[in-house]
Amino acid sequence: MKRLGAMLSLSLCLGGAGWDPKSVAQQGTVELPTVVPEEGEHWSTVWFVVIDDTLYLRLGPRAAGRVGHNTTAPRMKVRFSEDQVYTMRYAQAPEMADQIADAMAEKYWSDFLG
Q1: Do 104 and 47 meet the contact criterion of CB atoms below 8 Å apart?
Q2: Per the count of CB atoms within 10 A, which of 1, 16, 93, 107 is most buried?
């Protein structure tokens, strides 16, 4: 079953020492800020999966809209914890929709509700 939402892939930008996708893959959520001119900075907490060492997010309509107007594009910070903050480059990844949906369903037991 294909899930709705925007698919984003995130990869590490230069200068982000210490990134180890395997070490964060089992964490539950990631926080990301978007900066929209009319609203300023807003941090969202979202589910994520790691597939082949790439971080993938599936965003709902509201978060996807903010990302679409993000003034820091194509870069975004992601925060797993206070000491795990990375600057990453992001891009849409609709071709990964089925793989992301499968990985989300496996990682998050309640994903079938989304």
Answers
A1: yes
A2: 93
33-49 pLDDT tens trace: 999 988 899 999 999 99
Cβ atoms 66, 76 nearer than 8 A? no
Q: State the DSSP string of 48-76.
A: EEEETTEEEEEE-HHHHHHHHT-TTTTEE
Structure tokens of 91? 């891009």
pLDDT in tens, 26-35: 999 999 999 9
What span, in angstroms and rounded, lies between the C-alpha atoms of 33 and 95? 24
Q: Token pair for residue 106?
A: 């496996």
Question: Is 30 in contact with 107 (CB distance < 8 Å)?
Answer: no
